[in-house]
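HUMAN:
Just now I want nothing more than another pair of eyes on a protein record. I would be glad if you read both lines and explained how they fit together. I have put the entry right below:
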Amino acid sequence: MLSRYRQIFREPGTRQFSAAGFVARLPMSMVGIGVVVMLAETRGSYSLAGAVAAVYAFATAVLGPLVGRAIDRRGQRAVTVPALLVSSSGLVALLWLAGARYPVWPLLLCAALAGVLPSVGSLVRARWAEIYAGDKRIQTAYSFEAVVDEVVYIVGPLLAITLATSFFPEAGVLGAVALSFVGTSALVIQRSSEPKVKARAAAGRSAIRFSALHVVVPALMAVGAIFGSTEVVTVAFAESEGSRSAASYLLALNAVGGCVGGLLFGAFEWKASLSKQFLYCVFSMPALLAPLLVTSSLGPLAFTIFVAGLAIAPVLIIAMALVEGLMPAESLTEGLTWATSGINVGLASGAAIGGWAVDSFDAHSAFVVPVAAGLLAGVIAGIGAGRLKAPDAARL
């Protein structure tokens, strides 16, 4: 199994940009929870903390594709460096304002500025595509990156919380700023693996006008809603069972399931087309989530949530491979970023809906939200399957 992964790292520079990408990606899972812990401690308001974190999440989702389009037109280094400076300035200003009694709107503005940072996962995947475009190894590379994403979401929140609770409330966000600077700088200085700016990129139209994204992005929004609602409902369920601390272990099991699913998926060569693989994996999600509806205690939930996690990475792997295969090369970074933005919007929306369901009903009944989101993802993928079959179907 590991031999397929070793093969993708035989090309010069692949280990270096992948390692830099891991460090640069950690902040994306640290900022949200870091902001919540920081403002809850310094301002004493979870509602304010949640609002600021939500603005950051939506700003990242909205601004990310615009930054991605600029990268396609001008190159990774030319756009990422100024975007990094703007994003870091927003977070540093947020740190400074956190403990002061300023009005709420400057906090929201700083959170919006922080969302300018490019999607590092898209930058790294674009580099893999530059090396392995048209090669079967691209799916293995995307499998590896999906596993890295899962690890980031295990390590990042734990690191942010540990820093904030061990030192001072702002330490989690400050650590995210430092890692962003180190990792992103290490990535952009690697010019040999940076994708070349395509001749048509400067005059190219927005990637969202290509019909493949009209299927992939909404489907990934529903998948993101699975993630967001599962997190909130799992925390509430653990608390209702008298062990809120167990939630962190349950969510870690879900992420570990994603890692296992990603590693296994990338270790084999699948004969079905990418469009069929996407349908199979998306349809498997509600089937694997359905047992959550009859789970009555923490023990069965631990097993169920691990199994449910197995489908996470394969869906993301195939989605990114579809974007890479169906999008024109000059719009690839923007296309990948639109896919990531879909997940982020779904995460925020799913968390809000899941929280509403917990408050309106109870923690156990609220598991219907991730199951319903999984069914919605399947419906979207099924209706739009015809747009995902051939490169020439990607154009309107």
